[in-house]
Amino acid sequence: MTTYRVREAAQLLGVSDDTLRRWIDSGRLTAGTDDGGRRVVDGGDLARLAQEVAASAERPPARPVASESARNRFTGLVTRVQRDGVMAQVELQCGPHRVVSLMSREAADELGLEPGVLAVAAVKSTNVVVEVPVP
Questions:
Q1: Whole domain around residue 116: which residue ranges?
Q2: What is the model's pTM?
Q3: Which of 18, 69, 112, 119 is deepest in the core (most CB within 10 A)?
C-alpha cells in the first residue's frame, strides 16, 4: 500500500497542509499513522480525492479564440471515427482534402466526434514534406 505524508499529499492536491488536515478531521479523507507516528493517507484514497477536487474546481468560462499559432485550418465533415481502447483515428473530408488525425479516445469522446459532425482541423507542423510530381 502506497501512503503519503500530509505535506506530500497536500502538495499533490495543490492545497495547504492545513486544508488537508481539515479534510482529514472532517472525514473527507481518511488518515492513518506510519511507524514514526506521523499521519499518512492511502494513495488510492488520495487519487480519488484528487479526481473529486479536479471535477469540482471552478473553471473560467470558455472564451472564443482571438488568435492562435496554427495557420492551416481545414473545415469539413467527420467521415469516419475508428476507436480502440486508448486511441481514436478521426478522418475529415475538408473540400478535396482528406485529413486524418490521431488522438486519444477520451478526446474524441469529449468532442463528440462522429460521422457527419462539422469540425475544424487546425494543422501546425514543424516538418512538412514537399514532393514534386514526375513531369
A1: 72-123
A2: 0.57
A3: 119
